[in-house]
Each structure stands twice: as structure tokens, then as C-alpha cells.
Amino acid sequence: MEAVAEGLWGLADYHEQKGEIGKAVKCLEAICQSQVSFFPIVEVKTRLRIATLLLQHSHNVNHAKSHLERSQLLLKSIPSCFDLKFRAYSLLSQCYHLVGAIPPQKQILHKALDLTASAGNEITVKLWSCNFNSQLANALIIEGDYQNSISALQCGFLCATQICYPELQMFFATSILHVHLMQWNDENLVTAAVNKCDEIWESIEPEKRQYCLGLLFYNELLHIFYRLRICDYKNASQHLDKLDAAMKADLQQTQHVQELTRELDALNHSLSRSDLPYRERSALSEKHAQLQERLQSMSSLSYSTGKEYLEPAYFGNIRRTCGDKLVLAPSPIDGEWLPKSAVYALVDLMVVIIGRPKGLFKECGKRIQSGMQIIKEELVKLGITDGVREVNLQHSAIWMAGVYLMVLMQFLENKVALELTRSEFVEAQEALVQMKNWFMRFPTILQACESIIELLRGQYAHSVGCYSEAAFHYVEAAKLTESKSMQSICQVYAAVSLICIGDAESSTQALDLIGPVYRMMDSFVGVREKTSVLFAYGLLLMKQHDLQEARNRLARGLQLTHNNLGNLQLVAQYLTILGSLALALHDTTQAREILRSSLTLAKKLFDIPTQIWVLSVLTNLYQELGERGSEMENFEYQRKKVEDLQNRLADAHSSIHHIELIDKVKFEVHQFHELDFKRANAGSSMRVELDIPESVGISAPLPSFSSSRLVDLDTGGRRGKRKI
Fold first, then answer.
1. Cα–Cα distance between 21 and 6 in angstroms, integer?
2. Which of 33, 89, 449, 719 has the least C-beta neighbours within 10 A?
3. DSSP letters for 360-373
């Protein structure tokens, strides 16, 4: 009977190579369903093979799980066979992960680790221990147990160190950094994890690093997340340049491989002709061999490690996909962190996040378009087409769908911010409505986006002059998040909108919102919250006619913004207020210099409201200096800009989406109660594999303000001042 099994295994190999997975599975299941009994080890190997095929090529996780559970029962009666037992444990753990059954997954992994502890000190056993610690860490993160997750990863790192495997050490070092970025309890620990990644990466020989493209992307993206979190945009840009160059080089190589493959297919077709002359056939055969050799050399991801026989261990993203992968490193570390398409979309997203505050709108627009196109194509592959909702998703597709949907929302979020900066209000509406529609279809997978959507509704409302509605949405956004940083930003934005309303009651409410944030601003990581609250507090002090104190706070905020964030719109707005203050304090020389700088930045950003604001202050400056010609020229330019803005506002107000977006009502989501378990699993997995520390909305520029609301320093009675 062993010969029969060998024959069916060979036939299954043949069908798998041809891409006929269904036929391959049927060949293998014929062994399991045979009336004649095979040796238990034959049946175990067959069932493990079936489970592997099902997990790689289908969503039939429960069928795979049944085969694996049967294999485990058979293995209990077989002594030793550690390799088969380890494979069964690993595959079964992956099945439990895909269906969201975390407690049984942890139980299986603890049993597997107990077995590795008693199976000796061979390198293969150490590799399996690394495998199980990696999966256990992932399961623990889903449950929010960060500390034990780090402990599991440290055990894996120790095993990798014991077998002198720097690429595997790098995998665990980056994973530990990833967990620290999600938890962020102690900045010193995060910094130490970053330094450890740098140390391990440098320890890998340069000629071997070129084969670790997945690790390169994983490490560099985590470094960018870290730099953005601490508002170190300069160093973040350096890491991004390295990533972008690597991505473009890989895309070029992929395109070249595709061209060679097409050429090879054409040669195969020519060689299949029976009437081909001998000399021509000989020449084509030689060319065919050369092409095959070139393709093999380009697609090979192996170098001599002395560990080629260690293939069983498997690391990285749980779901192995066929086709073009961005593998972490050569086998056995040939898993993925994320699919190549998701990683490339993330690189595009990082270009947008870092480039948008600098006013690089043309490049950002290209990246938003390309990134969203990649994601929408991948969503279609997952079965997410028009009309598909959360309830319709295959359970095993939830995790990957969550990754793509979250990145898609980040692109749309950036598009809203970009269009609002350029006063393209209708385009901003459309992007924001798209965000709402995606959220309504996938309310749990995108649960974290609900607060961002409310914040963007506030930014839209403020940009079109609906300050009361803006304040409402900012306050609602703060209620919908547990992030102290996000809550603080929302409170500051709400305060600015209230200040723009202009009455005494609103100013009092603004102070109540700003005060708590101001008192705790030094407790945040980075300076994003501090620059925002200093802006708002300086604005409030100016409205209270405490001009010198306002100037001091604003100057401090401007310095922090310029040195750390590079957010040109916020810099322009800081400069405009400081120019207004300089004029109010009769420092006309400094006022002229500051306002010209502000106008230059506002023009670069196509920020019409800020331009109008600056121009109105410049008009006042020229009046005070008696420069009639400059005043008239400036006023005429201001009039054209006001007319342009009014036309844009009229278009926005007449849009069918305007009332829906500013209305003081949260979007109502239809709840699918039967999805509660799916939702919890999807949300947790999302946090594990793709934690972008800084939402774009948090760093979005403060909305533009009406000049009549901000610069009127000399009208109205002096209001009582309350210090924070």
C-alpha cells in the first residue's frame, strides 16, 4: 500500500504544480478515505499535506482543522516523529488563529513548546521553538497581553542567538519593537528596541541583506512609525527615502521577470511546433536555457547558510499566500509580515503622511491614487465588491480585509486633509463621504475610524465657516477615542472653533477645553499636542488682549513647529498671528517681514483662507504706514481671493453632502449582532499586525480661520482674563 500512497502523492504534486488544487486535494483524500488501511504515519503525512494546501489556497479552514485534529489523534500512538508533531501543532495553531479561537491556540502552542523542551537541542528543534514563540506572541497581543508577548519574543530571540542565526534574530528584534510601539509604556524601552534592531541589522553580512527584503521593509517601516511618533520628521524622511528606493527597485525587477516570463512562454510555444527546422530548434533551445537560467538567478532567494534542511520552521504572517511574496528572508524565514501589495501601499501612505505637511501635494496626490488603486484591487480578490458588508465576509478573510480597509481609510483621511488645505471643499466632501460609506459597511473592522471621521467632519465644518457644528463634532470625536493624544487634539480644535464664534460664552468654553490640555502638554510623546495647544492658547490670549503673553506662547509654539513638525500650514498660521501681534504692538518692520513669509507659505499650499487672512493684516499694515499704492494693490488681490473662496464655499454649501456632514448628529451604524465575535477578532488582529502609531488626523493642520474673527484686536470691551 505504500506504493499506492507514493503514487497518489506524486499525482497530487503534479496537479499542484499545474495549479489544480482541487484535484491535488482529491488525490490525497483518496488515501484518507480508502477502505484499506494505510500505516498511521502515511495517513498523518497525507492529512498534513491536505491541511497545508487548504490553508494556502482556500478559505476552508474548518476542513483543514478537521484533518489536523485527526492527525494529532494518530500521532499520540506514534513515538518520537517530532517533526510531524511539530508540523501538526503549527498548522493547527494557524487554523485556530484564522477562526479567532485564541484560548485553544495558546493551549496548542504551550503543548508544542513543552515538546520542544523535551526533544533535544538540535537546530531543527530550536527553529520550531522560535516558530511557536512567534505564534504565541501574536496570540498574546490579540488578547492585549503585551508583556507576555514580549517575553515570548525574547525567548525566540534567545533561541535564534543560540543557533547563531542573525536573520532570525532580526525577525524577533523587529517584532519586539513592533510590540513596544503598540504599548509605548516607556520611551527608553522603545528607543532600546530601535537600537537593538539597528545593531542586529548591521551584524548581517551585506551580501546576505539583499535577500532579506521583507525584513528591510518591516524594520524601516517600524523606524518610520517610531520617528513620526516622536515627531522626528527629518529622520523619518531618511528612512522613507531608503524604503521608496527599495520598492522602486523591486518593482523594476518584478517587471523584468514578467517580461522574461512572457518571452519564455513565447519560446515554449515556438518549440512546440513539430515542423521546426533542426537548426532553428537548436538556437531556440539554447536561448530557452539561457532565459531559464536568468529567471532562476533573478527569482532565487537562497544563499548557502548551511541550514537548507531546516525548512520546516515558518515565521511571519500566519497566512501564506501563493504568488509574488515579499518574504522576510530566505527559507526557513520565508513568511511575510504583510503581503507585498499591502507593504507597497504603506510606503505610498508614508510618502503622503510625511509629504503633505510640507505642501508636496502633487506627489501626495499620485501616491494616494496609486495606493488606493492597489488596495481596491486586493479587496476585490478578497470578495469585497460593491454591496458586500462585514456580515458577508469569510471568517478567514477578516484579518487581511481589516489591514487593507484601515490603510484605505488612512489614504482617504489624508485626501480630506489635503483637499481642505487647498480649499477644494467639494473634493474633501466626496472623500469624507467615502470614509463614511466604508465605515457603515464595516463598522467593527473600522471601529477605530469612527473618531477620525468625526474629527474630519469638524475640520470640514470649520473650513466652511460652520464653527458651532465644528466644535460639536470635535467634542464627539474626543468621546469616541481612548487615546489621550487624540482627545487632547480634539479639545484644542474644538476650542479654536469656539474662539472663532467670537462671543464671551464661547471663549469661556474654549478656555475650559484648553486648560486641561495645556497643563498636561509636556506629558505627551513628541510635540504635536504642545504645538497645537500653544497655538490655541496664544489665540485666546490675543482675543483677551494679553498681547505680550500671547506673543511669547506663539513664538515658542512656532519654534517647536518649525524645528520638529515641518507643517507649513501651521507655520503659516503661527506667522500670521505673530504678524498681527507685531502690528498691534506697532512693530511694523517685523510685521511686514513675518507676514510676507506667511503669505509665501500660504501660496505654496494653495491655502486661500490663510492667504486672505494674511492679506487683510497686510492691508492694515499698509494703512498704518500710509503706503496707499501697496494698500490698494494688496486690497485688490485680497478681493479676488475672497471672491474665489466665496465661489468655492457656495459650491460646498450647495452640495447634497454638505448638510449631512455638518449636521450635529453622529452617523448611525446598523449593528449585526451575530458578528460580535468576528468583530472582536478582526479588531484585535488589526492592532497586532498593523499599528500605525500616528493617525493622520492627529497631525492634520489646524483649520483656516476667518480674518474678521481673529485680527480684530481693537474692537469690543476688554474682557476679563483667566489664566490657565
1. 18
2. 33
3. -HHHHHHHHHHHHH
Q: Are 465 and 497 in contact (CB under 8 A)?
A: no
**CB-based contacts of 122, cutoff 8 Å, min separation 6:** none
Q: Which of 216, 223, 253 is nearest to 238 (CA)?
A: 223
Backbone phi and psi for residue 657, each to the nearest 5 degrees, phi listed first: -90, -15
Distance CA 154, CA 143 (A): 18
Q: Which stretches within 184-277 are classed as H helix?
A: 187-203, 206-209, 213-229, 233-271
Cα gap 228→215, rounded to integer Å: 20
For residues 46 and 9, what is the distance between their CA atoms, to the nearest angstrom? Answer: 8
Convert the pLDDT of each residue in 213-272 to its tens digit: 999 999 999 999 999 999 898 899 999 999 999 999 888 888 888 888 888 888 888 888
- Nearest Cα to Cα of residue 325 among 385, 409, 315: 315
> How far is CA 389 from each of CA 393, 582, 694, rounded to the nearest angstrom?
7, 56, 27
pLDDT at 292: 84
Question: What average pLDDT values come out for the chain (724 residues) when binned by 10 residues?
Answer: 78 81 85 77 88 84 88 84 90 87 93 91 91 92 92 96 94 95 90 97 93 93 94 92 92 85 86 84 86 74 37 43 70 84 94 92 95 94 89 81 94 96 95 96 93 96 95 96 92 94 91 93 89 92 90 94 88 93 92 95 92 93 92 93 95 95 87 44 35 30 32 32 41
- Contact between 691 and 177 (Cβ < 8 Å): no
Dist. CA 248–CA 255, nearest whole Å: 11
Q: Is the bond leading into 332 cis (omega within 30 degrees of zero)?
A: yes
Residue 268 CB burial class (10 angstroms; 0-12, 13-18, ≥19): exposed
pLDDT at 672: 54
Is 360:244 a contact under the CB 8 Å cutoff?
A: no
Q: What share of the chain is helix, strand, coil (3-state, %, to 5)?
A: 75, 0, 25
Nearest to 400 by CA among 385, 379, 386: 379
CA distance 462 to 662: 9
In the chain, the amino acid numbered 132 is F
Q: Which residues contact 591 (CB under 8 A, 6 or more apart)?
A: 579, 580, 582, 583, 617, 621
Q: Which pLDDT belongs to residue 55?
A: 85
pLDDT, residue 306, reads 35
Question: Taking a C-beta distance cutoff of 8 angstroms, is the pair 404, 342 a contact?
Answer: yes
The answer to whether 382 and 391 have CB atoms below 8 angstroms apart is no
Q: Which residues contact 691 (CB under 8 A, 6 or more apart)?
A: 178, 181, 182, 225
* CA atoms of 316 and 320, how far apart (whole Å): 9
Per the listing, cell 465575535 goes with 677
Q: Residues of the chain with pLDDT > 90: what percent? A: 55
> For the chain, first and last CA: distance in Å?
85
With left for phi above 0 and alpha for psi between -120 and 50, is residue 655 left, alpha or beta? beta
Distance CA 529, CA 510 (A): 16
pLDDT of residue 319: 47
Distance, CA of 59 to chain centre: 25
Task: Name the H helices within 464-567.
Answer: 467-479, 484-501, 504-519, 528-543, 547-560
How long, in residues, is the chain?
A: 724
Residue 702 three-state SS: coil
For residues 149 and 153, what is the distance between their CA atoms, to the nearest angstrom?
Answer: 6
Which residue type, as a one-letter code, is found at position 294?
R
Q: What grid cell was written down for 192?
A: 532600546
- In Å, the largest CA–CA distance within the chain is 106
Residue whose C-alpha cell reads 512562454 in the numeric block: 265
> Could you tell me if 98 and 128 are in contact, meaning their C-beta atoms sit under 8 angstroms apart?
no
